[in-house]
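go over this chain:
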Amino acid sequence: MRANLINIIFILCFFYPIVKGFIFKFSTQNIKKDVEEVIYNITFLISFFLSMFFAKKIFIEHDSGIYKLIYSKIPDTVIKLFGTNFILIYAVMIPVFLAIIFKILTFFESFLLKIIVYPILKSIEDTIKRKRSFTKRVFGSISQIPRAVCYVLLVAFVLNILSLFNIENNFGVYLEKSIIYRSICQNVIIPMTNSKLARQLPNILDNSFKVQQKELPNQADANSSSGKRVIIYYNGMTLDEAVKSNAEIDSFAVKLASGENSKVNKAQILYNWIGKNISYDEDKAKQILNDDFEQKSGAVPTFKTRKGICFDYACLYTAMCKANGIKVRIVTGQGFNGVSWVSHAWNQIYIPEEKKWINVDTTFSKGGNYFNSLRFDMDHREASIAGEW
């Protein structure tokens, strides 16, 4: 019901100004105010997208290039203040960037209106002033299309922000079912706010990672109160079955990382290889969504076919880390795919030099750096350790 309501909201936002334009007809006096408002809204949206982009690049994703240089010039007091507090970055830095960018764009906006927009509007009015009323109504509707698009984008952007901060537990599920919302996010909002990350991030489907529990008779404790044992299945397999390796994978993994001595460098090489060579299997994700586990999951089939879903990525990475003597975990939780939070699996590895565990997500690697990255906590949550080796 709510998913349909979201679609209805988008439809109403789009057609309201168009219908209004048809009713009140086209006139230069009215359209000038409308165009100024539309351009103002467009300028605001562009400023917002750019402020999101630059705030993320400078404070979260400063891996290389000019953003790394800018970050290095920021005073330590500012860095300590913000740290990895993404809410604080959103609440403070984005408004600052927004004010600066908006001021710059509005300066050019005035020239755009005077030099291009107003003369075009006058020319259109001169052309249709002797036309019939219906023609003026049609032009009135057409003139409102930019405003309609702005309304739709603004609503989609607000919903996207609410989804990211998980305002309601089931909110993402409802958004996920809205075809209009998903389309706008995938084609407009995500590419503009996340750049390379969004365009390459796999289209992870909701619940493409399934965890099931089954009770089996416990022979050893047949006389106990329960007489049963619980086995957990991940996409139809036990965890031990899924991370099971073979001689081919082990020898390949060892050879691949043989040029490095430290555990962290070996782990980075394995991460890079999986990210570049394993493709996300959307067909399998749909099958898992429908509880179809005919296609086997785990390290061996993923290495053989060079494709899989998040659990397969994590299993193969686990097998390759084990072959190199790297302590590794499989972690289950949720990942933000740009539209909503979905079931997800990733890894953690132990760095003996630093005596700590770090997060690694090979599934997301095609979209950016997810090897011990600051951005990790921004789109991963509810982490639970499934297994450790």
Remarks:
- The two ends are 45 Å apart (CA to CA).
- The beta strands are 211-217, 228-234, 279-280, 307-308, 328-336, 341-351, 356-360, 380-388.
- Residues 197 and 367 are 4 Å apart (CA to CA).
